[in-house]
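Late entry, nicotinamide-adenine-dinucleotide complex.
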Amino acid sequence: MPELTGICDTNEKSRPWFVDNFPSITVKTADYHELIASDRIDAVYCAVPHNLHERFYCDIINAGKHLLGEKPFGIDRAANGKPFTLVMETKRMAPGCTNTWFIEVYGTGGSVRFTTHDPKAFYTLETRGKEQGWLRIDIGSQSFIPSVTGGIFEFGFSDALQQMMAAFLQEFRDGGSKHPFVNVLPEETAMSHAVHTAALESHATGTKVAVNYGASRTLMG
Ligand SMILES: NC(=O)c1ccc[n+]([C@@H]2O[C@H](COP(=O)([O-])OP(=O)(O)OC[C@H]3O[C@@H](n4cnc5c(N)ncnc54)[C@H](O)[C@@H]3O)[C@@H](O)[C@H]2O)c1
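Prediction complete; structure with ligand written out below:
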């Protein structure tokens, strides 16, 4: 079982809650160098503000620790070029939605869709003769990796974080995760930056710009 052994935050008010609730914590500091120098720590979940990601992430990796980082993985393409290991990056704009993810697959014989706007439902398109209609199936709540949240409860943000952590720990422990949403690879973060850099250039010049994937495509095979 993973054990929480250290906490680092420059905010003096943040640390006591962790120290009071996790007796396993022995490293308590405002200086992350102290945290990453400790042999009590194998992996670091680093959630400092965006502008600190490049420096902190690189220092953590160079200290020989596993890193679970937050997006953005490098504030721009140059920063992303550093040796990062993980990222989850999203860019989206959906009118009427707040942080909504959806997957839609349309086919001639049938279609399916899922949206986090309605997370306990799965939609399939039924065709009867010339008529088509969406069927909403209530699937309840069941996380891929079992957690403390029972199936009769609503899946929430804390459950998503638990799944993220669990997928990371599976990779860390087993060298690969069976989770359907495995952690994103560094090569994929580089590809994302390549696409967005080309989009910025295209916007600035008003021309069509080819995406230069560079080394990221080679790495992805
Ligand atoms: N807020 C958002 O909308 C958002 C969106 C996407 C990703 N993220 C990512 O999620 C993570 C958490 O975001 P947040 O909004 O809670 O961040 P935040 O700005 O509230 O900061 C998180 C913590 O980092 C601590 N911190 C700041 N400087 C530090 C330092 N030098 N050493 C140690 N600790 C330090 C702060 O005291 C705070 O407790 C970040 O990595 C952020 O990039 C946030």
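The radius of gyration is 21 Å. Will revisit in the morning.
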